[in-house]
Amino acid sequence: xxxxxxxxxxxxxxxxxxxxxxxxxxxxxxxxxxxxxxxxxxxxxxxxxxxxxxxxxxxxxxxxxxxxxxxxxxxxxxxxxxxxxxxxxxxxxxxxxxxxxxxxxxxxxxxxxxxxxxxxxxxxxxxxxxxxxxxxxxxxxxxxxxxxxxxxxxxxxxxxxxxxxxx
Length: 167
What we know:
The protein starts with about 50 loop residues before the first strand and ends with a helix. It is an alpha+beta fold. It has a domain at about 55-135. It has helices spanning about 80-95, 160-165; strands at about 55-65, 70-75, 100-105, 110-115, 125-135.
């Protein structure tokens, strides 16, 4: 018997469209991680979550010989590359004539620069700090003002000079 003479029974399987399965959900595609950690790739599943953002801050920690030590901030940047470049520019400009200094890169990619003697025994360390930005709604609503000896609306206080300076 040849194969052309064999009769196959009719199939009871229905096509996908006949079964009402015309919509097929495809799996999510895998994407490479972005080079910039601030770049957020969102998928429909991510829309319910709030992704934290990071900012990069240029911090200058001064230890003057004859004054109080303290930290100052000289910029907030949205990318690590910009913050690192700002640090290099700041150190080269303000401390370009310093002879004894050290610098390096931390494991997280931030850079630092320091000197044990920037003149007259002053010490300084400049570094990039990574700060997390709180998501919307992280701080609960607060309607009342508390504190201060004259905490009330329309009352005079010693802080009136601040209002004058601001306006």
